[in-house]
Amino acid sequence: MTSHPDHAAVPSASDAAPVAVATTPSGPPPPDAEHRRREAQRAAGRAGARKAVAGIGFYTFVSLVLAFFSLPLLWLAVAPFDANPGLSASLPEFTLQNFRVLWDNPYAMRSLGNSVILAGGTGLLVVAFAALAAYALSRVRLPGRDMLLYVLLLLSSIVTGTAAMVPLFNLATELRLIDSQLGVILVLSGGLLPSAIFILKDFMDGTPRSYEESARVFGASPFQIMRDIVVPVVRPGLATIGVWSVAQVWGNFLIPFLLLRSPDQYPAAVVMYTFYTEGGQANLALISTFSLLYSVPVILMFLFVSSRYGFRFHGGIKR
């Protein structure tokens, strides 16, 4: 008997391993290069439009601010030469009669000289005493030095000349300084000194002490050191304080008005008050003309000091 070999089992179709079928994801196709370019152009256009609108808004705001400040100056430059000035800036009916009227006024031109005396005297006192005090506070180590300086500045800011007018008036009466330009100069100088000392101390701190030590070795006195070494270095600071003091006094009305009695000693800020009628109506022709003359000295002083020294709020030299 012959035997037949066993046949190998053949797997059926149902037993075969599952085959993975690749499928494509559903959805819109990716944007092409042309679509991306158009989107970039739209974004750039929107950014450019926003930038243009912002630029137009900024320059419009700047123009309005400039117009707000330039229109009064334009009126001040035009109204003195107008025969009938009003509250609006317009082409003037040219005349010099307003200047002739002011020249004939017995107090108008004299008041400008009084303002120069008050402003110049106060400026000299403030610069001299502030320089000495700032130099002392910068070089001498005193307990509570910085606290003293800040207290003086704080008190000068809180207790203004208006708030202290009653005790100042009583003090001027006791010292017989009523109706005296010297009394006005002293009162104004006392009010400006704390701030001037505070500003000048920064200039003094920036001055190298090695220069002073070298001069001291050669026998220079403290006054000589101050005059020949410190003052030339801090000259821009002294100029700044001088211009600031003169400007503060030049426009001050209350203290001269209360302490002076004689119209011959009135400064320009007080005399300008007389250009109003008893009913409070302003004489625009005289006020505009006098205001133009009143502003010229201060403008010239600013231009001169700025061109000569410049204005900066730091002192000393490079070391």
From TrEMBL:
GO terms for cellular component: plasma membrane. It is found in: Cell membrane. It comes from Streptomyces lonarensis. It comes from the Bacteria. Belongs to the binding-protein-dependent transport system permease family. SUPFAM superfamilies: MetI-like (SSF161098). This is Carbohydrate ABC transporter permease. PANTHER family: INNER MEMBRANE ABC TRANSPORTER PERMEASE PROTEIN YCJP, MALTOSE TRANSPORT SYSTEM PERMEASE-RELATED. Residues 112-305 form the ABC transmembrane type-1 domain. GO terms for biological process: transmembrane transport. It is a multi-pass membrane protein. Keywords: Cell membrane, Membrane, Transmembrane, Transmembrane helix, Transport. Signal peptide: none annotated. Residues 8-25 have a biased composition (Low complexity). Its main location: membrane. It holds the Pfam family BPD_transp_1. The chain crosses the membrane at residues 56-78, 116-137, 149-169, 181-200, 237-260, 280-305. Coiled coil: none annotated. Residues 1-35 are annotated as: Disordered. InterPro entries: BP-dep_ABC_trans_perm, MetI-like, MetI-like_sf.
